[in-house]
Predict the structure.
Amino acid sequence: MRAQIKWIFFFSLLIYHSGIATAQQKATNAQMTAAEIVQKAINNAGGDAKLEAIKSAEFVSQLITANNDTLSISVKRKGYNKCYISVMSFGYENTTTIFNNGNAVLIRNDTAERITDPAKLEALALQCYSSIDYGYKKLGYKLSRIEDMQASNFDCYGVLAESPLGLRTANYYDRKTGNCIMIMYPSGGRTIFTSFLPYRELLYNREELLADAKGSVTRSSLREINIDENPDDNWFHLPPAGDCKPPAIVKTGHSRYVNGKDTLANITRTENKQIENVKGSSTEYKIDWLSASDYVLYRLKNASSPPTNNNIEYIKTRITLWSGNRYYCQYITSTDEVGTCAFERVE
C-alpha cells in the first residue's frame, strides 16, 4: 500500500510540468552531463554490448484502463529496424502497427494504411529498441540537461531528449538507481515506470502508468517476455495499402499451430465450431466470426452446468497477418490470458 501511495504522490507532482517543449535548460547538478546520465541508464539495462547483441525480443503486456477495461498489447522486435505493435481488447478497436526498415503501415478495420508522417516514422524507429535510452544514443538524439525534479520521496535528474526531427521529451532519472522513471511528451501525456524486471542479465520495464493529457491513467503490466527466439519474418511483413482481409478459406479446414503455447494442437474448423486435438484429447469450441479477421471461440467449462458467466470460457482472436497458408494472430481470453500465435493450414 505504501508503494501505491508513493507513486500516486509522485504522479501528483507532475501536473505542473506540462510545457515540455519550453522546459528550462538548467542543469542543477553540473557534475553529470545529460549523456552521462543516459549512459548510466544504458549500463543498468545491460550495457551497450549486451543490448547490441540482442537479435530479437517479444513482449506481451496487459493494460487496464481507467474504466477497468482490459487490453492486450503485443510488441515484437527483430534487429533494430523491425517492430510489430498490436493492441486488442473485447471493447476497443483493434489495431496493428508494423515498422520495417523505415516504412510502416497501420492495420485497422481490415484496412491497411501507409504511415508517411515523418514524426510517426521516427517514433516507430525508436520503438525498435527495448531500451529507449539505448535508442536515444543509437539514433542520434540530442541530450541536454533540464531542471531536476526533487521531492521528499524522489530525487531525479532531468534530461531533454531531442530527436533528429526536433521532437522533444523530458526524461527523469532516479539519482540512486540511474533508471529512467518517467518520460513526459509534448502532448502532455506521460509514462511512469514503477518497477523493473531483471532478465538474462538485462533490465526491462515491468510495470508502467500511462497518463494522457487529461490525467486519465492506464496501468500496464508485462506478462510475457522472449529474447532471441527469432520470430518469423512474416510478423514484420508490410501488407499493401487497402483491403487487408484474410482469405475466406481460413474459416474452414484443417490446421496446426506453429507458434504459441499449443504447438502440439491440430485444428479442425467448420463454419460454426472449432475442435482442437492434443495427443488424442479434444476440446470443442463454438466459433463466432465478428469480421473477416476477428473471431471468438467459446465453450462451457462444465457441460452439465448452466451457461453462466463463470462457466463460459471464451477466446477472442484477431488474424493480423498472413502469408501463404500461415496465419499470424493475437488473442485475449476470458481469464485475461494474452499472447500471440500462428497456425498453418495443412490442406
Notes: The domain at 245-345 is CATH 2.40.128 (Lipocalin). Helices lie at 2-12, 34-44, 48-53, 118-127, 132-138. The longest strand covers residues 312-323.
